[in-house]
């Protein structure tokens, strides 16, 4: 090897370099070659063409890579010389050159052909077919298809130009003839005539014929189908019909794929398609090979699926296509002799299409298909132990299953069965009843339950009862129990014994994952069996009385072997389940199943003792005993204890606790323990206890419960950020208070009075409530994407602001507004007013200090966060305006509302919502100063380009809504009258138009939003004669029906 070859070796494989300096020098040498005027193309070409100058394939590959980047400098003559060079496998040296070098040479040829054919190299294909190297020509044709012809949409005009030239220059005929010679040569070789060769250079082996047929399948898509059929109709049919012993498997497989390409090729009409199928003899081929199962079964089934699909597409033009398709499916797919291997993912869609069609034989095919699907499901459940009687005649037991590419999934089989059952319910039910494998039966029953019409439900219930009476420890059996508990087991109470004892076996499994799955399933099963258990409990009580009256009865056998016998349960099912479940619940701290198994079992116990069949005293006794067990284990105040008590409460309801005093007492004790645990736990550990507090508040919606919760919250707020160090911890407290208002309402007023002031102070002063936007999202991005850009802290603070607004809304709507009125004298009250009034216009505020006079600054937010907070704020503002406006109930409220009115016009049109119009109407009806403000905003909208007709109409509608407002409900206590829907809808449309005009005016004037807007005094206004100004023509019309508003001149506003 010379220095150049060493440099290439070191560059391609740096560990071979003896030193870093040698590697650097090698790179420099190669750079010197490629940095010449021609990019090193001439140097590399000369190296490859000179005999014995290339001793290693890596060198040839590197040189070809350089040439591939400069094919514009490569003439066709020099390219053909390169193809014949021994350095790249020419001169019958292909066996001595690695495939990657040959493939790179083929890429060089394709790149040259792409640039120069047909203008500069019109004889390209004739030259390539005359090259004494069949392997290279086949590689070039494959690379041409992969890089250019198969990607016409991406390659554009280049691919179209090459295809059109190949058609016009008769290249298609040349290729077809050459491929046919290669195939015939292989046929003669396979027949023992090794001396006869029709292919170029006599290189007509199995690999060449396989490649030729593979290329034919690729090129058929754009070739003239008539030329293809003239050359290959007979050879393809002959190859496909030959037995496997007389033809090489790769060659026959390639021939089948080529036939598939002919079948799926797009043609002008359905008649042409049927003629092609007949001429190619596809039906004869697939029918003749129907029972011949070989290593090519997957290729055969794919061909069958495509043939049936195309026949169905042609059925509209020829009714005979239905008959042909039915014959193919019956003999090639659904016959008992072949369906185990031929009914797969490649043929099932064709079967489904035929069954869903209006074909005359659809019902018969559906019957065969259902039988095959049921058999496939049974094979999937126990392929290694298929019963001898389940193997059809002519079907070998040791036959291989389809590979992963064609194997049917359980989901595919069930979906087909379900869809077919809708069209042929009777056939589906008959097929289901013939199922012998228990798990397959359970799967079909669960997925068919909602499909069969009402007329077949009784037969379905009988099948389900039979399946339930033959239990097996598996999740599918329990799905069957859950699905059919109500319709089946209530009428057959003996089945509950079978189902429950099977569940107990599953809970005693050795594998931890199996126990966890069984425990989770047990919750669903008990839910589904609750009504059945009640019936069983009543039946057990009656049976106990009968047994007491009739001595000598033998006990019921409890083994699973006799569960199919129809008998009444020997004991109360609820007591039986409790007796079985309670010993399984171990409360050891180191128990590995503590959360995965114990918690679901505790929920099962809760559902049982909370059922109506359990006597009240027994229910309280069970609950007391379980809580005592938790306490004695030292777990009642732990995280697991909180989760256990939470699960234990699932079976109880507020009504039950209200009716049974012992339950109320026990749950109140749990509440006290939980509150003490929260006080003693670290802030992060408290998060696990808050779900329990919410659940206990739901169970005990009492004033006493609210007072305990309020004292708890007040104490935590008093401790301050030590107890509530982050926004998340404070949000948990607000959630608790919101639930209190939602569940208890006005009865929680006293509790809210002690926590309102410290809570709002904490919300306003402890944390900077809102962060600035973290960045702009891409235009048109989804809201979830924009929200993902926010940091965790940002999301928590936005959630905290949202919870604060929800808390205020609940106070105002839950007859607890006096709580807010009583706190109106607090130092932070003005901030709260600003937060609501400005937030309703999308201006979410932040304060620069803790003092009341600290400046408020509008904080920009992400759009999704801003819109949600704005709508929450306007809802609060509307409720506050309805209760406080014009009544002097809250100091400075009317002034704050008037100052905020202009903001409601300057929101984005999407935030101009119904509540905005209602607030304006309320202010206009109750506050005289609001009239001046709204008139000034109308004038400003006119100056911003809004049409006078829009402003005039909006003013008239607003006056109409204001006239409909009533200050007080009537004496009967009826709610406030709702505004007219048509008027409100039109006013909302006009408000959005005005808001858009004002926003455009602000944008053109480059205005900046301010944190506080104040109404100008009477002395600062500019009076004008409205009737003399064309832009203010709306004012005269407005005043004509507005009473004293006609005397109010428009006034300018400053921001």
Automatic annotation (TrEMBL):
Residues 390-403 have a biased composition (Acidic residues). Its main location: cytoplasm. Pfam families: Xpo1. InterPro entries: ARM-like, ARM-type_fold, Exportin-1/Importin-b-like, XPOT. Residues 384-404, 546-568, 1005-1033 are annotated as: Disordered. It is found in: Cytoplasm; Nucleus. GO terms for molecular function: small GTPase binding; tRNA binding. GO terms for biological process: tRNA re-export from nucleus. Belongs to the exportin family. This is Exportin-T. It comes from Cyanidium caldarium.
